[in-house]
Design goal:
The structure is a homotetramer of 337-residue chains. Chain A has 337 residues and is of the alpha/beta class. Chain A folds into two domains: 2-63, Phospho-2-dehydro-3-deoxyheptonate aldolase, domain 1 (Alpha-Beta Plaits), CATH 3.30.70.1140; 83-332, Aldolase class I (TIM Barrel, Alpha-Beta Barrel), CATH 3.20.20.70. Chain A has eleven helices and 14 strands. Chain A has an eight-stranded parallel beta barrel, surrounded by seven helices. Chain A has a four-stranded antiparallel beta sheet with strand order 2-3-1-4. In chain A, β2 (27-32) and β3 form a beta hairpin. Chains in contact: A-B, A-C, A-D, B-C, B-D, C-D. The A-C interface holds A 240-242, 244 and C 240-242, 244.
Chain lengths: 337, 337, 337, 337
């Protein structure tokens, strides 16, 4: 249920409404726009208390939310969510480009790649410190050491950093280093982890689980929002289908669909979604043309030496060429990159 | 096995090679380029006769084809296949736009839609005469009557027409009316139908079966090519996955992948691949950005009255607006539309 | 809409009802039980004529059918459909066992396998004359020659035969040789073929398409029934999923579900549904335990020499051992085999 | 790499081998059989040290493990793993029956259900304390309170208990109450959770992720084994496919396949794998016939009042009837239940 408050409502007027919500053991989610204050009233059976709110002076309108997800739905908030990560605007007309190695393997090569992708136009650096690997005998990431390397690389390049967090016990530490916390596909319904990043003070990129419906994905985002964190990026990264010629099937249908259903920014990861180096630039262009607000792409100096997923990393030169093409596609659609 | 003949080989030299191929009970597929003549030698165990061909005077080089599909593979023919349908070039740098109603329901409305899509930029008219319907109680198409209406519409609008053929017994008749024969997703492995259109003298659009791998799809195209028809359009139209928010999952990964594996033109059908009207323009743009050589789109004057699939038809005005956007994306990639 | 006629209704009473149905341009499907006569009234908007039938003397009750499939639904006919194939009862408490080679490759080996599977307990012989093959360069079956071999084998062994028909033009000829016509997975929505076997006077086994929902499958069966052929076997043979360790994913959920939704007999093909020889007996047992009315299994004397699908054929001795186990499972459930 | 030690090897001989393994920074996994001692040598590139082990006196044979999973593979251990949970033998010829409510909602009803399923033949009680729910607004389980209720129910009924653990921070506490720790489908690749239960001293049931291949699943089990816990139950619970008539597609192919690939016990959860009450008994029978070593089934007194998944819970009377049928199927296969 959404309460739209009257224009010019006083601080006390807002507080009264919030107090009433809490009295009913419901949760209040405030969204203060430039003109209007709206409050999401969330909880089981919130709707049955509608009449109580109808009686409150400060309230202009009450709207039901028909979807099972509430705070992340377009019904709750009509305008696109835009937020700022160390000066990089996420979710607005400018398309955001995130690039870097799959996993952080050496400090020196991280520096090099960071410089290369920055020069090519990337605005945020990706790099895995904790890596979810199918086998316990595969390289699991350099962990905290890699976080420090990422931090040093940020100092040098001024690129904000995004890195994956896999364990609820790591969230507060990773959040100290990272500018965006990434939830990977295999943890997209790891609900205690979602709750924990919901309490963190850093934006979260939520990758789609490989067999997750759009509705389940939005409900996973709702877990994060319901715990207080509204700065969420939805990232399509391919779903699992019967097709084996590509690593996953990149579901670009999800992009315009999500733009309709949610106010959150929608990104695409063509590296995982295709998994074949030569095809990635074409699908990055397609993602932009479908309306994606950003891309996250794997880049490596010498993909054959990468400790994970080398076959899907672009070389810096390929990345730079791709950015040039993406800029043209973005411009054709009235966006920048 | 591919035989590349020496430059300037005589007619007799070619005939000798072909005679030798037939003597071995193999099939010869001639491809006469501007500079070179190449011959595909197709048949079980063709490779074991390599030595015989090595001895022939006219032959410059012999190359094995590693893929299970031969004639449709890039290995067989490096340059893109381009062909002409009543003046419309398919497969070249210009992107082809096919539009029209799902099924032909009334003659008058067909005229109207044809005029509307032509004006908006479509170069070929689509319209179903024989309709594959899930239920025997659904409208099955107006059949031969609809073919005559399509013919009349072509006379009026000069738009070439594409229509589906579902039964091997119909192929010769449908081929008399249609400019392109369409094989639908449900018949993509109807091998006797594939053989029959392989013998027809009209280009064929082969839609992807809804659970078909890329390799199976190329092998289905190979059925057509092996029976003599080399003018084939591959058309991605969405695959069946667990996701239910869209009708199918449009697999755009298939576009750059096919461009790598085959010399045939690659089209996309966003109408079936998404199945939700509002999302179709975004996915049409994405298809073009991914490298599609053409699009086939459903347009209807009053979708709610359509006898099939109205929910995924664009209104003529929506179509016209979409074409404008597509032109910008095409131009950004150095193509025209 | 189902019309239940009064007990003891006269021939004339029935004719009157049928005449009325035809007058409304609807189709009448008569089902004459031992006690009651029921008539399925099928056609677009059949339900709007309900009142006309309410006025007819001969009619006891009128029932709507809620499912999109009508004649094949349990609503239309509560008791299991049982029919007779040269003395073999299909659909009753006795479980039917069909076995034989994937494709008929040599006459002698067909004889041998037929004798072996008969001795082991098979009641019907399978063998492909026309083979749907992914590649045009694979063995396509011996066609009419193989049909004659099957006929001779029947004369010798008294085993009725089932074989696949792929082309509507072949139906009448194949029906002269075969006792059951098989529609393969790739043709499960080849609607003109379904219509043609619907007019044939032989029972039809309808395999599930590899991406077909249960409802689509029942609607495909409805195509056959609506054209007059009510002797249909539904055969689950595995669906296509992301799992690659087995050839397909055998969906045994379909067995109890179909028994609920339709009165038709439900068979299982574990050979295609698993595709790995060693695992087939376990899944054949599971199919019987799930309630299957029959099995169709590939058996070959020397699987490595088979011209198709040798890796999933059981050796005659393995088949015989499996039958012994299946008999125990059947007995445990109060059925025979 | 597996080292088989000579018969009658001394304690010191074993210790020498283990010391050598550790010196190479590899891990030693000891498996002491009645006749032989075998040691799994696990680590990246373990195989390159083969020669060092060939020189050791105590070693009889060295075998490579070809699969990516090692400790859980049949290659590592040929005989079935059998273990004991408070007197209930898991993995042997007797089939284990686990039953109980989806989530523990009230103490009294838990007592009642526990008594009912015990009387009907269940040997272990299931009940969710922490529930993974798609929406943050659904009932999330009674948590620690429910664990205490489960403990009290065990005191009363003597039924060992299994319950899900979702957060690595909960493992040690849940392990104090539960006899078996359950890892749910959504956490099947939550690697830090897997590592944590790998260190716990309680058996683990690892449900299959809903888009997990058999190989990925065995590698997830390997995570648990590699951290020291070898008492693992693999539980098939349905995979996600395009079919929507059932909740998931129960992949019984996985049962005989896993029995071939791993020595671990294989269970089936027909409740989630089908999701439709009426169809569950048939699929439970099929699971036993396919070779499952156990079943886990949801039972509820009044499914319509259940706080989660009521539509797939059996009533106690239905459960009791099903057990009777399962006993017959088990007996037919030479097993008990």
């Amino acid at each position: 249920m959404i309460l739209t408050l009257k224009s010019g409502v006083s601080k006390k007027g807002i507080d009264d409404v919030v107090r009433q919500i809490k009295k009913l053991k419901l949760k209040a989610h405030l969204s203060q726009g430039t003109e209007k204050v709206i409050i999401g009233v969330i909880g089981p059976n919130a709707a049955i208390h509608r009449e109580i709110f109808e009686g409150l002076e400060a309230i202009e309108a009450i709207t039901a939310i028909s979807k099972p997800y509430k705070l992340v739905s377009r019904e709750f908030k009509k305008s696109d969510t835009i937020f700022n990560v160390r000066g990089v605007k996420i979710g607005g007309p400018a398309i955001t480009l995130i690039a870097g190695p799959c996993s952080v393997d050496k400090k020196e090569s991280l520096f090099e790649i960071a410089n290369a992708v920055k020069q090519a136009g990337a605005q945020i650096l990706r790099g895995g410190a904790f890596k979810p690997r199918t086998s316990p005998y595969q390289f699991q990431g350099h962990g905290y050491k890699a976080l420090r390397w990422l931090q040093q690389t940020r100092q040098m390049t001024r690129l904000p950093i995004i890195t994956e967090v896999m364990d609820p016990r790591h969230v507060s530490t990773v959040a100290r280093y990272a500018d965006i916390l990434q939830i990977g596909a295999r943890n997209a319904q790891n609900f205690f982890l979602l709750k924990e990043v919901g309490k963190a003070k850093k934006p979260v990129m939520l990758k789609r689980g490989m067999a997750m419906t759009i509705e389940e994905w939005l409900l996973a985002a709702e877990y994060i929002a319901a715990h207080g964190n509204h700065e969420i990026i939805m990232c399509e990264r391919g779903i699992r289908t019967y097709e084996t010629a590509t690593r996953f099937t990149l579901d670009l249908n999800a992009v315009p669909l999500l733009k309709q259903l949610t106010h959150l920014p929608v990104f695409v990861d063509p590296s995982h979604g295709v998994g074949v180096r030569e095809l990635i630039p074409a699908m990055a262009r397609a993602a932009v043309a479908a309306g994606a607000d950003g891309l996250i792409v794997e880049v490596h100096r010498s993909p054959t030496e990468a400790l994970s997923d080398g076959h899907q990393a672009l070389l810096p030169a390929q990345f730079a060429q791709m950015v040039g093409e993406l800029r043209k596609v973005a411009a054709a659609l009235g966006r920048t990159l």
